[in-house]
What we know:
By secondary structure, the protein is mainly α. Helix content is 44%, strand content 3%. A hairpin with a 2-residue loop joins strand 1 and strand 2. The model has no long low-confidence stretch (mean pLDDT 90).
Amino acid sequence: MTDNRKIDPTTGTETTGHSWDGIEELNTPLPRWWLWTFYATIVWGVIYTILYPAWPMVSGATAGLLGYSTRGEVAAEIARVDLSNADLTESLINVDMGVLKDNEELHRFAVQAGRSVFAANCSQCHGAGAGGVVASGYPNLLDDDWLWGGTMAEIAYTVRHGIRNEDDADARVSQMPSFDWLGAAELDATAHFVRSLSGLAHDEVAAQAGADIFATNCSACHGETGLGDREIGAPNLADAIWLRGGSHEAIIQQLKTPRMGVMPPWQARLGEADVRAVTAYVHGLGGGEAAMDTAQDTPAD
Length: 301
């Protein structure tokens, strides 16, 4: 058998037989250490697929001989933390929310837990910083303006049952009728009057005409001076804080085609401890109010 191997005279290394512009490619062997490392990774890969979850199947992946699961590891860690906080959680469920702040350790625990609950479940609408989104009608939770009240008990009730949803019979409900039957001039005058309530720029003559329209059609819910009514979720129109914008055009739009948001009930999804935790967190953001009394805040059934 003829040996057709060609050896490069300069390096003494066999060539591959390929040549470009007179330059021949050397067939330099790989370093032994690299080859053994490569073989070791192959062996390790085979062992790994046997011991750990690896191969995708129709409804899951092969479990592996060790039965390891990152999901199971996280679940175990959560269970460990829950167990270590069991006493605090039980105390939070049973404490009178009106005096929660008197227990510094429990209040700190509630706020820290509530921050996590808020980030996971509430920030998508109210924003990561709880500043709300005016364009979409998501309330700012940092100010001291509350449609339904800002005490611990009132916030907890709103979190438990939500607003205008069909999933909870105890959800808070308010309804603003459409005033599209008013003429353009009447809507314009009413908007000027509403802006005047909070000292915003307005046409004084138009506002005077709008006062009579407001008294006839709006004062039953918002009050004669526009201070609102928390019992029925009627907004305060005299504080220059707006859920859907306070421009002249935005007010007219709300009069003609009222936009009313929906908040889901969180009791079933979160449980009583997390409801109270997120209540404590939201209450402490800057707009929470002190309770008029310390009546026990009873969890809803």
